[in-house]
Amino acid sequence: MASEKAGMAAGLALVGSEDEEGRSIEALIGAGDYRQALTHCARAHAMALGKLCMAFTGSQAEAEEMVQETLLAAYDAFPQYRAEGSVRAWLFGIARRLCGRHAEMKTRRESRLRLVHDTRPRPDAGELALEKERAERARAALAKLKPSEREAVVLRFEGGLSFKELSIACGVDEAAARKRVSRALAKLRAELGEE
After folding, report:
1. Is 180 within 8 Å of 163 (Cβ atoms)?
2. What is the CA radius of gyration of the chain?
3. Whole-prediction pTM value?
4. Of 77, 102, 120, which closes a domain?
5. Which domain does 116 fall in, by range?
6. Which residue ranges does the record assign to the RNA polymerase sigma factor 70 region 4 type domain (predicted)?
């Protein structure tokens, strides 16, 4: 019981510190100190943005590049920031859009290359480790989802956004965000079974 209370207190302190950080970033943006605001954004949210971008891209190098692009895009957008939600949700929305564009461009580029000549060796499924196989099945199941559902699931579970933050990042109301996640989870369960 005492450990549960300690865990809840630590969780509340973390949420409180996130709120304080968000308010300090908003104050810096309001004051026009965009460099300092960017520094605070990077310090507070780069790791979470990296996880989110990694979930979207599947590549550490691409994820790091997407985080940098997200922070640069945020810096450029600071003058238009309206503080209609949390800074975190706003940043995740930017990252979601950039990762979507990146995935689209990557798909186009790979399809053009495949048309020219595809010499990449196919991995032998028998040689892959069990964890890699499970990750591939999960990625395949995610790829079968509608883009809006896939984004909602990744933002919710990999990005750790609340449904309210998710609704802001996706530009829908909270009920629609919950519905997207629920539909996506049902499809993933049907696709992956017990996993």
Report:
1. no
2. 19
3. 0.56
4. 120
5. 19-120
6. 137-188
